[in-house]
Design a protein that fits this description.
329 residues, alpha/beta, UDP-N-acetylmuramoyl-L-alanine:D-glutamate ligase, 4-stranded mixed beta sheet, 13 strands, 26% strand
Amino acid sequence: MMRLPPLDARRARELVARFHTVRIVVVGDVMMDRFIVGRVTRISPEAPVPVVQFRAEHVRLGGAANVAHNVLSLGAAVSLVGVVGRDPSSARLRDQLAAAGARVDGLVEDAARPTTEKVRIVTERNQQVARIDYEEDADVGEAIEAALVDRVHRAAPGADALVASDYAKGTITRGVMAALIGYKSARVPVIVDPKIAHLACYAGATLVTPNHHEAETATHRRIRSDDDARGAAREFRRLVACDAALVTRGEHGMWLSAPDAEGTVPAVAREVSDVTGAGDTVVATMALAVAAGATMAEAAALANHAAGVVVAKFGPSTVTPAELAALIS
């Protein structure tokens, strides 16, 4: 097995201590995640479905908004660019972002589409019963795309890293991605959490972070071992024309393929409560770490530990510097 060298705890603390000095720009599909939690004790007499007796409701930031929330939670500054509708969900999203300490002037309002919201009905044991999605997944129109590109040009100058959080809900268009790539430099990385349909848009990115299934689909390769992951990651880099790829593999950890490092980052042994939003935490931590001076291998190790924290929590979650330092120690 080709393992990347473990990250020294002292070096990790040095990198995390620098997070507050950087600013990240996050561009992508912002959304709300709403959880309706209840108890199931019987099956409905009207249809063979469980009856959920309401107990609580939780609202969380999702998608690109969750990436931004993770950046803020780790102590850095963030500028968020995305699209919302003209509806009550937009107001809730703005309130949640403001409460987290994020500016909302990078949000573009599109009255022709709803604010993306995922409503999950779950039991008290975190078992999902159903999900309702409020969304429009077609690319935004030309006027909205132009407004997004304008927001990118306002936010990107002076940023230490740029993140594209692509959930294929219409925000990451070819024009928006081109605007982001235009700000890439040796000092300013562009990091992408991808969707397969948009792979051609990511050419030139510093790092793209497909999950296991996305890497398999893009490369037409099965990933069952580290050797498989290495081949798929190399092929993914070639196909996308990006500098590096990080394939996230759940309980098998991550595989990094970069010009200066290649190997697996073993998963952190944690009890898994919910993997929702773990990819958001990974891309946020990678951006922060590289902006703070980490190598790709060091950043992958930090991101792996950060993901280990959030999967032990319910729903899209964040990690703090203290939690990250404690787990590494």
